[in-house]
Amino acid sequence: IGDIYKAVELLGRITSKEEKAKDVVAEMKDKIEEIRSKVQNMPEVKVFYIVWSDPLMSAGNGTFINDLITLAGGENIFKDTQGWPQVSVEEVLTRNPEVIILPPHAGISAEDLCNTQLVNTDAMKNGKVYTLSSDDIVSRPTPRIVEGLEEIAKFLHPDLFNFQYQPLTCEATS
Asked: Which part of the chain is the Fe/B12 periplasmic-binding domain (predicted)?
């Protein structure tokens, strides 16, 4: 995220809008600190972030997404990997996330997960599967990354943010 601050400031210098760039960075830092201070005393929530469905891929250490999960009060279940690991359903089941988050264009919908072995995770059993409003808020190095942080924090700690979400329910098949 520090690299995003530097990029915004550089863009400000290049376009002779240094003050505006400083304001944008200050707003980003303020919002991040506001969220961090809200969640700092909350228990960490184990998160599985689905980057892509086939092959199943997640976000590891060294990614914006990992940083956002951590700042939002979560623990990325694949933080022990680097970059964008391909993972198995068995690994996800073993690590048993409490929350599953996916972008709108992951190649699978939250409802589609009902037809996978992921239904055996605590996240699925408790309906805590969330789809971000946009891919861009977590995948592009822009000031919108703060919007992604806010959404993730709401998913992980809904009571702190007065967040209401219809839990995912999987219909039993006969």
From this structure: 1-160
Structural domain harbouring 125? 42-156
Q: What is the pLDDT along the chain (174 residues), one digit of tens a residue?
A: 888 999 999 999 999 999 999 999 999 999 999 999 999 999 999 999 999 999 999 999 999 899 999 999 999 999 999 999 999 999 999 999 999 999 999 999 899 999 999 999 999 999 999 999 998 898 888 999 999 999 999 999 999 999 988 888 887 553
Selection from 117, 6, 139, 144 nearest residue 64 by Cα:
139
The domain that holds 100 is classified in CATH as 3.40.50.1980
Identify the H or E element spanning 151. helix 145-156
Number of domains in the chain: 1
